[in-house]
Write a structure and sequence with these properties.
By secondary structure, the chain is α/β, with parallel strands linked by helices. It is 36% helix and 13% strand. Strands 1-2-3-4 form a four-stranded parallel sheet, with helices on one face. The chain has a two-stranded antiparallel sheet with strand order 5-6. Helix 4 runs parallel beside helix 7.
Length: 170
């Protein structure tokens, strides 16, 4: 996920071309730097021309809910050329209506929870490692509930329980 802008908040096509070349064969998402661009139509056309596969955006507002009208316009005008992914403030409570109201095909949410490494790796001495004993992981129940809710928003069914994924998220 990358997004490089010029000092006047336009897509830096020169540097993004270099990123695209270095990431050849890999799907590339232009991140929320897009939300700082002055002219969204010019910016998204640059992102598409650069060969980015996805655009992560809040619709140039503080949250995707606040930017849902812009998200809808972006989806209608450019959705056949790039996958628009709504981000910022997307939660299980609002994802389904965001999908229905905008027609977008992707959402991004934070589902991270802190884990205490010592609880899962008892052989490590917390006095030696101190603050390095906490890490972010995914709450698999929250992720499953979120995906199921979103799939219903698209008219799909729900996923089977995810028991194959271990406590490390792999």
């Amino acid at each position: 996920m990358f997004g490089v802008l010029t000092s006047d908040n336009q897509v830096d096509e020169v540097r993004m071309k270099a990123v695209r070349q270095l990431s050849e064969g890999v799907k590339l998402t232009f991140h929320r730097a897009f939300d700082l661009c002055i002219n969204k139509d010019e910016a998204i056309c640059s992102v598409i021309k650069l060969g980015c596969d996805r655009l992560l955006t809040s619709g140039q507002e503080g949250t995707a809910i606040a930017g849902k009208e812009n998200l809808k316009v972006l989806q209608q005008k450019y959705g056949e050329y790039i996958r628009i992914i709504a981000a910022a403030g997307v939660k299980i409570e609002n994802a389904r209506s965001l999908i229905a109201d905008t027609g977008i095909l992707g959402v991004h949410t934070g589902s991270g929870v802190d884990y205490d490494y010592v609880e899962t790796h008892h052989y490590i001495d917390p006095q030696v490692f101190g603050d390095m004993m906490r890490w972010k992981g995914a709450n698999i129940d929250l992720v499953e509930a979120f995906v199921n809710k979103c799939m219903k928003g698209w008219g799909g069914g729900s996923l089977p329980p995810v028991d194959a994924i271990g406590s490390d998220g792999y």
